[in-house]
């Protein structure tokens, strides 16, 4: 959905995270809803486009730093140590409606993580919310590198 992609792009801009988009997208990147969701932050997001899933996978220098996010995974997104070693981490999300292709998931079972949810009430969490949850957990484990606090409050004035 264009709005989800725009929201994810805004999260990426605010966290200095690169956004990788894998084709086919199912919508135009010129979509007005996507642009509106991303507000005026598009020039602050590093975006890479990949023709297919294989092309994206080939760009990852250390496959152990790829995490595929699926409600069918056995371990929670908070379990891996995202602060270990050098280099970037990659989080791969599928379509909100269908998830990632099952044959692909079978190839990377040790890289799969899940966000706990009540499956009796919903099929899936919102994709942009899921991306934000996982990105911020990884950044939390890394003590939020490059993310400065912009406002400091005088605690005495808050009492």
Automatic annotation (TrEMBL):
Any single Pfam family the record assigns to this protein: SpoU_methylase
The enzyme's E.C. designation: 2.1.1.207
Compartments where located: Cytoplasm
Molecular functions per Gene Ontology: RNA binding; tRNA (5-carboxymethylaminomethyluridine(34)-2'-O)-methyltransferase activity; tRNA (cytidine(34)-2'-O)-methyltransferase activity
InterPro entries, A to Z: Alpha/beta_knot_MTases, SpoU_MeTrfase, TrmL, tRNA_m1G_MTases_N
Domain tRNA/rRNA methyltransferase SpoU type as annotated: residue spans: 2-136
Principal EC category: transferase
Sorted UniProt keywords: Cytoplasm, Methyltransferase, S-adenosyl-L-methionine, Transferase, tRNA processing
Entry GO terms, CC: cytoplasm
Catalytic activity of the protein: 5-carboxymethylaminomethyluridine(34) in tRNA(Leu) + S-adenosyl-L-methionine = 5-carboxymethylaminomethyl-2'-O-methyluridine(34) in tRNA(Leu) + S-adenosyl-L-homocysteine + H(+); cytidine(34) in tRNA + S-adenosyl-L-methionine = 2'-O-methylcytidine(34) in tRNA + S-adenosyl-L-homocysteine + H(+)
GO biological process, any: wobble position ribose methylation
The family this protein is said to belong to: Belongs to the class IV-like SAM-binding methyltransferase superfamily. RNA methyltransferase TrmH family. TrmL subfamily.
PANTHER family: TRNA (CYTIDINE(34)-2'-O)-METHYLTRANSFERASE
Main function: Could methylate the ribose at the nucleotide 34 wobble position in tRNA.
Protein name as it appears in the record: Putative tRNA (cytidine(34)-2'-O)-methyltransferase
């Amino acid at each position: 959905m264009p709005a989800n992609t725009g929201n994810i792009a805004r999260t990426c801009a605010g966290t200095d995270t690169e956004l990788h988009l894998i084709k086919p997208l199912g919508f135009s990147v010129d979509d007005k809803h996507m642009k509106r969701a991303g507000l005026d932050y598009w020039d602050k997001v590093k975006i890479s486009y990949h023709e297919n899933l294989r092309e994206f996978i080939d760009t990852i220098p250390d496959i152990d730093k790829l995490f595929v996010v699926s409600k069918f995974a056995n371990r929670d997104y908070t379990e891996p140590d995202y602060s270990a070693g050098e280099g970037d981490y990659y989080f791969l999300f599928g379509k909100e409606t269908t998830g990632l292709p099952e044959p692909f998931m079978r190839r990377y079972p040790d890289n799969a993580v899940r966000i706990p949810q009540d499956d009796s009430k919903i099929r899936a969490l919102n994709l942009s919310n899921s991306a934000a949850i996982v990105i911020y957990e990884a950044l939390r484990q890394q003590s939020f590198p490059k993310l400065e606090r912009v406002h400091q409050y005088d605690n005495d004035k808050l009492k």
